[in-house]
Design brief:
Elements (H helix, E strand, L loop, with lengths): L6 E2 L5 E4 L3 E5 L4 E3 L1 E4 L6 E8 L18 E4 L2 E4 L8 E9 L3 E3 L4 E6 L2 E5 L9 E6 L8 E7 L2 E2 L4 E3 L2 E4 L4 H4 L2 E7 H71 L1 E13 L12 E13 L1
InterPro entries: Ig-like_dom, Ig-like_dom_sf, Ig-like_fold, Ig_sub
Keywords: Membrane, Transmembrane, Transmembrane helix
Pfam family, one: Ig_2
Length: 294
């Protein structure tokens, strides 16, 4: 029996691969899985993957051509950004405290690109043409095919599986078509991630704009309140200033100067002299008082 960790202690040495042949596209990521078993009494110290060449037991992580592209997830081998040169046989190897073992034969990995073929191969124009998107190996059903003309995705024409049906095309136009195989799960995940990122950035932008608008409003309110305070201060100042002036004016007004002018008039008195034994002429003094205000 195989344990959850992929290790069985049934008394036999062995490695069981999930699939013996794997087809993958250039630039994609591939996972190769397995389970293994060993006799009881053994303790596994090291596990790794290597090329299926005789006496080549070097860990793939140490291979120069796989630098930064290989990782192990449990017993699973994961190779990223596949290249055509990655095609070959891969084996799982484990080392115990008493012995070591490699699962042979291993897994055959074929890395392929896409190629366009047409039927018929040449056309004279005005006839139906079927374009096929072919690979060197058979991809699983999770892939979908996308067609391009001069780098732009084709929206007209009927597509089915890996074929594109065109009503009329010339030989020159045939050279303008290309195709690509896309992982449906990965493309769906990428689209979902793109939607999530778009929503996130939209919300973030709205938040930033709201914050800036709020800060601008608060700044304007602060300036208005400050202006009102200045106006009130000026009003109080203007109201208090005249009182000083008034007090000064009052003080000035209190500085009153008095002066008098006397006019003397000589006339002959008609009163009997016996009543007034003084001189017949008497001077009457008329006093005019003037007041000057400063």
């Amino acid at each position: 029996s195989v344990s959850l960790s992929g290790v069985s202690q049934n008394g036999c040495w062995g490695v069981t691969y999930t699939s013996r042949r794997v087809c993958a596209l250039v630039g994609s990521t591939v996972d190769i899985s397995c389970t293994y078993s060993h006799p009881s009494g053994h303790t596994v110290n090291t596990t790794f993957w290597h090329y299926g060449q005789p006496r080549d037991f070097e860990d793939l992580r140490e291979e120069h051509q796989f630098a930064g592209r290989v990782e192990y997830v449990g017993n699973k081998l994961r190779i990223k950004d596949l290249k055509s040169s990655d095609s070959g046989e891969y084996r799982f190897r484990f080392i115990t405290n008493l012995d070591q073992y490699s699962g042979s034969p291993g897994v055959i990995l074929t890395v392929t690109d896409t190629q366009v073929t047409s039927s018929p191969a040449t056309v004279s124009g005005g006839e139906e043409v079927i374009l096929s998107c072919l690979t060197k190996c058979t991809l699983n059903n999770k892939y979908t095919y996308i067609w391009y003309k001069n780098g732009r995705q084709v929206t007209d024409g009927l597509t089915k599986d890996n074929k594109l049906y065109l009503d009329s095309v010339s030989n020159e136009e045939l050279q303008q078509y290309s195709c690509a195989a896309e992982d449906q799960k990965e493309s769906t995940a990428l689209r979902n991630a793109a939607v999530i990122l778009c929503v996130f950035f939209t919300l973030a932008l709205i938040g930033i704009l709201w914050y800036r608008r709020r800060m601008c409003t608060l700044s304007k309110t602060h300036r208005i309140e400050k202006g009102e305070e200045e106006v009130q201060y000026d009003s109080v100042h203007n109201n208090t200033a005249p009182s000083d002036f008034t007090q000064k004016s009052d003080a000035d007004n209190q500085d009153i100067q008095y002066s008098s002018i006397s006019f003397k008039t000589k006339h002959t008195s008609s009163v009997p002299t016996d009543e007034y034994p003084t001189d017949a002429t008497e001077t009457e003094a008329v006093h005019y008082a003037t007041v000057r205000f400063k």
